[in-house]
Amino acid sequence: MITEIKQSTDSLEETKKQNKIVIFNDDVNTFDHVITCLIIHCDHDPLQAEQCALIIHNNGRCEVKTGDYEELKPICSFLLEEGLSAEIE
C-alpha cells in the first residue's frame, strides 16, 4: 500500500514537471539577443545559451526550460516581452 502511494506521488510529480518553454526561430532576433535572454531569464550559462540559440536556428525550435507551469509562466512572459517567439508546452 505504501509503495503504491509513493509510486502515485512520484508519477504526479513527474507529470507536474513535464511543462517546458519552447523558443521558435524567427527572422527578427539576433543570436546575441537570444543568448542574452536565455542567460538573464532562463539562468543558462553562456555556453548553454549559445547551444540553444544554434538549435533554435538549425531546428526551428528548442526546449529551453522545464518545470511546473506556475514557475514557467512568468519566464515565458519575459521572453515574449523581449520579442522572442516562445510558448509553454
Fold topology:
Layout: H1 2-16, E1 19-24, H2 31-42, H3 46-59, E2 61-67, H4 69-81, E3 85-88
Antiparallel strand pairs: 1-2, 1-3
Helix pairs in contact: 2-3
Based on secondary structure, the structural category is alpha+beta
Number of helices: 4
The main pleated sheet reads as:
3 strands, antiparallel
- Written as H for each helix and E for each strand, in order along the chain, the element string is HEHHEHE
Overall 3D geometry?
A: globular
Q: What's the number of extended β-strand segments?
A: 3
| Main sheet: strand order | 2-1-3
Percent helix, as a range, is: 55-70%
Low-confidence stretches: none
Quaternary structure annotation:
single chain
Structural Rg: 15 Å
Mean pLDDT: 90
